[in-house]
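Q: What structure does this chain adopt?
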Amino acid sequence: MNRIQVGHDASFRVGFSGHSGHLRLEPLPPVERPNPLSSLPDFISPPAFARETPETIKEYIEDTYLLPRLDPDEFSPEKVGRQWDFDWFDRAKVPLEPSLPRSVVVQKWELPFRRSKKESASGKWEPISEEVEVSDLMVGAQDTGPLPRMVGPAKDFIRGSINNRPFRPGGLDDSQSLDRIPPLGASNGEWVQEVLNGGPALVVPPSFKQGLDLGDLKAYSHSWKVYKGQSALKGKSEENLNKLSIQFDDLLKKAWEEDDVAESKEDGHSPESDSIKLEVQLDEVEASSNVGDLESSVLDEILSVESGSKPGLDGTSDDGGRQKKEAWAVSGGNEGIADHFHELVPDMALDFPFELDTFQKEAIYYLEKGDSVFVAAHTSAGKTVVAEYAFALASKHCTRAVYTAPIKTISNQKYRDFCGKFDVGLLTGDVSLRPEASCLIMTTEILRSMLYKGADIIRDIEWVIFDEVHYVNDVERGVVWEEVIIMLPRHINIVLLSATVPNTIEFADWIGRTKQKQIRVTGTTKRPVPLEHCIFYSGELYKICESETFLPQGLKTAKDVHKKKNLSTGGGGSGTYSGPPSAAHDGARAQRRENPGRGKQNKYSGSQKVGNFYGTGGGNQNSSGSQSNWGSRRSEASLWLLLINKLSKKSLLPVVIFCFSKNRCDISADKMTGIDLTSSSEKHEIHVFCERAFSRLKGSDRNLPQVIRVQSLLRRGIGVHHAGLLPIVKEVVEMLFCRGVVKVLFSTETFAMGVNAPARTVVFDSLRKFDGREFRQLLPGEYTQMAGRAGRRGLDKIGTVVVMCRDEIPDERDLKHVIVGSATRLASQFRLTYIMILHLLRVEELKVEDMLKRSFAEFHAQKKLPEKQQLLMRKLAQPTKTIECIKGEPTIEEYYDMYTEAEQHSNQILETVMQSSAAQQFLTLGRVVVVKSQSVQDHLIGVVVKAPSASSKQYIVLVLKPHLPSTLQTPSESGNLQDKKSGAFPEGHFILPKAKRALEDDYYTSTTSRKASGTINIKLPYHGAAAGVSYEVRGIDNKEFLCICIHKIKIDPVGLLEDANNAAYSKTVQQLLELKSKGHKYPPALDPLKDLKLKDMTLVETYYKWNSLLQKMADNKCHECVKLEEHIKLAKELKRHKEEVNALRFQMSDEALQQMPDFQGRIDVLQEIGCIDADLVVQIKGRVACEMNSGEELICTECLFENQLDDLEPEEAVALMSALVFQQKNTSEPSLTPKLSQAKQRLYNTAIRLGELQAQFKLQISPEEYAQDNLKFGLVEVVYEWAKGTPFADICELTDVPEGLIVRTIVRLDETCREFRNAAAIMGNSALHKKMEAASNAIKRDIVFAASLYITGL
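A:
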């Protein structure tokens, strides 16, 4: 286009716009440029599309498709602040948590000197790939959190499911899965060292054909420090143990490293600067040409770990490098925490309206640090503060906390206490309130079930609080605490609250070792309200203990009064008189209620009616003694009246009176007929409270006899509390007592454990209790727990504890033991259960042996394992001695085994057989015998030459010696008949040839014809030689006879003992030699049946075996070896060493666990009934058994699989199931329908069969006891009628079981129905599922399932 010429003065110009040809006007600068850069006019714009290049194309693709870009319409300034509702989760095309692959392909890194010589075409080493399971590569990750798995359905979030895997327990580092080691290249840094030295890099990913091209890599010229990782989870001791195994490849590796250093020196570079400095944290052992020296030096290092300071292999002290013994239970070292508490914890998660105690500050400080805490303090000391703070931390951290309690009552009460402060939920067997809350209160059994079933809520839990930890001593339920502690995952911290126990550190150490985390131990032995202990006798209180110090003077005063009273009443000081308590001091009101003629009637009221603990009562707790007439009852009532008046005048009310029997509580409260302790305003408060509480009951239930009776007592300020009360009645009593309107409460021991309601005074009706098996004295821990209820913090300066004394005063020793004695130690009650075994067998990662090892019972044995391992290494490192046999292949081990076994039998034989009268009859002159040798070489064959006499109790026996003495002593030289001096032949001994012997020295001469006089003219022991054999005449006891032979030879006692005739000796020796030359070392022994007349078959078998061993020993080539004694000692030492090594290995193995035999027996039982198969894989029957928590799992499972409930109606089925959960032993016999009777017998037969099966597999179970303990049919009729709709008042008339136990059984039955319903779903039995649902609905009604007052409030 030609340029259009316009005027020079024009301020604009006309031009074309782009390629479209439109005209436009463009402003011009004042002056035109004289030299334009191109011929293109300035007013023509560049083309619309620029020239495309690879760079522009890449930029366009990235800008259009790869870079995120907002929609300009949606995100315009006009729409600022707008929000979009978009359901991302519903529209997602992929699962939120895709399942992990089971295996992956990884490269296997190898040391250069181990690589294959076959190289690739490129001339570089190409690593091989291998398939590895994902779980193998997650060793480190699994330890820090739960096992990788998908989240289950929402309905199983809280309770879990039998299909879920449990989370990995914390501290389970040495389980089977952690033994699998990932490839070397994935866990250490040796491949980095190779790359930095210029070696080939791994550039091709596994399963790929082509990788990255990194070019030629050169060595990095800077110094690096590469530290060996500690990912192998092994301490120094284990690594040192591995060094003992010196492999040839390891030496080559060392040589390869040295070659690298040599090459670097040749290049002119110093190895310090050019090569990598590999600084291993543990001392390396330099390879030496002598491998034996290397092993010994390594061994020396290992064995010196536990000893004092020793120089290491490099000549320096290795103390600093040793791993210090870690203390898991940390106590002390926290003196400054209380003083600087607010500086250490400036922003508390929860503020308290009072000043915290020292132990509370310490515990809170450790909670803030994320440590686990064990708090041991007395009752009412304020341990709950620690639990509250853990709840506050969970709320602050947006996590969860769980509070577990041993008793359902505690759970309900804590729910009420915490409801106003935290977001609280409650989970018990029959109640589930707000399970989504951040703070959950539940029983320990519920938490155990959640752990076994892998509930997903476990992921969110930060704290688990165990209250009343000393309940671990409970025989029945203590095992639950140990199971839960062992099963808790590692990310959960633990808070333990316990009464003071002697072995707090030991228990905390066990938990720390089990969970592999430190446990901070704190607490106090100081009571917030000090206690004084008194005894109440004859109307007076005598102080016997104050400030934990026993006061003998008060006890002495009481005993003096007791003595005077007995003397004044003519009791003779015997202490058996128990008339009405004297009211001479302070009891005018009691005197008016008595009459003078009642002394004889009440003589045995104390001992017969209340029992006797050295006069304190309590032996017969049911108050049904022979003296239960009006007079004795009147005396008991006046005694309580006297005590209440005394406490009231001293302002010591309210009082809790502990009686160790439900009947005792009821009877004692009913006797308080003439006492009223409440004011009119208090009566009104009690009346209004009871009306509101009982208004939720239906009409017939409000008029139950128990409800009416308790209301009547409460109006007078008297309460009763025991397990026989209805739950709602019990809660009314507890709440009114906490309000202070109930002045006197008769209670059983459960009140001290389950209710946080302190009183001014505590009274012990007795110091003896029945524990379910026997009457026994109270333990100090039990006394302390109950006495701790005395003294209300903030209200009382001192708490009072009173011990009732009726007819006698307790001994000082017994009172001291109970009051100031040491509390009961925490002891393991761990035992294996079938449901525990089945739950653990469901998961590969968890083994039953792991659970057994981590129990408190095995704590001390497992704690000593490192020491035993070290001792085993010492034993194995000892140089072993070899036995060099001069007769060929050594058989000394076989000979020593026979010798040892014969020695074991010999004691029984010698004591039982040889000293019997039958054996003594054969020990006559000429009887051939085998005599015990004084050395181990050989036993001696001999002959009896003289029987015991009145002057000598020993047998005189001639025995053949195994070899000739070094100096020959002829009879003429050694006997006491000649005075010749015996000659010595230092060169040895010889026997004269026959031609040169005298006549009397020949082998055979005529025997002496004269009669023996019984005198012994030779000096014993008498030594000699004849026929080339040395002999000895000596006296022995009958215990030295090993064997009495069947042979008897003719001897000349005169020639042997009186004349010392050589010919007599020669003939006797020849006869013995002839017996030995008949093919046996020893002649045959007497027959135990025909000759010795033995009747015991076991003894006869032992006798035969023993004689056989003696013969085998004689036939062994070692028997007559000259080195036998030396080799026997060496074999004994080797045998002992081998046994010690085997014993150590056994102690370190799983077989040494205490409950391993029980475990093997239970496994056999489960296999026999089909719960598991031969490979220990849980079958459907075992999965059903896993659902059974409320009843005995084997009986419940067999009942279901035998279809025992199919022919029963829902009411009959639930009635039969009551036998699985009812617990009281002695009840009245129920009246059952024929159908129920048949079902009852069928279920009982199943239990007997299971008991016999367990006894068959060596479990300590009696079939009858097993059936009776797990099946109690006392409430079958009651539950049947209740399920049919009978009112509660009517079913109570059918049995003598207390109302409270009836309600408790039916409530537990509802849980059992739910378990059976879940089991039916697993089995696929829809009919049983519907039946259990109908049965559950039939029993859930009225007073039995009335809501708790703690939960609903008033």
